[in-house]
Amino acid sequence: MNEVSLLSALIMGLAGSGHCLVMCGGIASSLQLASKQLPSLVVAILYNVGRISSYALAGALVALLGASLAKQNTMIANVLQLMSGVFMILVGIYIMRLASTLKWLESLAKSLIWQHIVKLNKYLVPINTKPKAFLYGVLWGWLPCGLVYSALTWTLQAKSPLEGALIMLAFGAGTLPALIAMGQSALLLQKFINHLVTRIIMGNLLIWYGVYLIIIATDKLVH
């Protein structure tokens, strides 16, 4: 297990959590429907556990696919690592808001995956039980978010499904503070995450790590 990969996934999740707050704003209103039956904090925790569970499952499946392809051909493994580096750079640019480098990925995921999964939403609302709160999170874990799917392309270079799951767990953990925080705390955290200096620092960290991955992959392809 590469600890740098886990740390980078955590940073990606933390840096992108401001974007998560915007995309998941509508979900918060739905969660309020459970307030009379369940404590809001319990619902928030169960929802996020479900959401991150979906990330981990997706990471394991994508890593399994990547590992299977890599075993067939060493060049494929290097190409997958090269792709991971490219997406890391795209995420860094996206976080710094220099360009909408991930919008196309969100549109693609929406048409291929989300429009089918979202139909299950009607079976979970109102969220008046703990299992519903958890399953609601599982469902919305597949929301077409460019950051999530970029992280998933990163798991293509994972050596095993477990490593892929851990990378997505680290990413999900990075998004937790902003999505668990309530009221003023959430506003303060969002302000910090969206601050220009914070976005530049985190974006550059991801870009330089992406460049590092590309250099390693290119060197392997050349030699």
UniProtKB/TrEMBL annotation:
Domain of life: Bacteria
Source species taxonomy: Bacteria, Pseudomonadati, Pseudomonadota, Gammaproteobacteria, Alteromonadales
UniProt keyword list: Membrane, Transmembrane, Transmembrane helix
Segments passing through the bilayer: 44-67, 79-99, 133-152, 164-184, 196-217
InterPro entries according to UniProt: UreH-like_TM_dom
The Urease accessory protein UreH-like transmembrane domain, residue ranges: 9-212
Protein name as catalogued: Urease accessory protein UreH-like transmembrane domain-containing protein
